[in-house]
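Box 3.1 A note on notation
Throughout this textbook, protein chains are presented in two layers. The first layer is the amino acid sequence; the second is a token string describing backbone geometry. Keep the layers aligned when reading.
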Amino acid sequence: MTQSLLSEQQTTESLVHLLGRVAQQDRHAFSELYQSTHRKLFGIVYRILKHQALAEEMLQEVYLKIWEKASTYNAGVASPITWMATIARNRAIDEVRKNQLPDSEIDVDFDLIADDSMAPDDSFSKSQDLLKLEACLAELESPRAEMIKAAYLDGFSRQELAERLNQPLGTIKTWLHRSIKLLQGCMNL
């Protein structure tokens, strides 16, 4: 097993363990979980909300929900970071729909946010994964790659994608499902 895969597996196991402790109301474990994941979840929330102050506030709500729902986490269904990212994404999308937020006038430079949890080897591995993801996205048909980006980076709902692409909702769901399967296959090569 390569070093990056081993490191990723160790990280996943660590997060599963932390979520188990959080489910038992362990505040120290919750603090460790926050330190390990807050930058990634902030990035997800910010990309959708496009307002730094609102994203920071929303991140608090996301972690409150993680605290409350930790006992419902099922490692057989999703990785811990995927489970938490889904909570963050859904909460941010709900906020956009509720308040019809305008675009932000101020942009956050994510490169200026230090990530002390990432060692240089991790950074290299992440950049390699990003390059691979970009290559896999390039292999998808253009409208499908754009649809994946709109759904998972910009927070568009399936209904919004259907309207944007002038396609039936069922078609969008099928395209998303098939595109994700293709991306997963490509990433695992």
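The longest helix spans residues 27-49. The radius of gyration is 17 Å.
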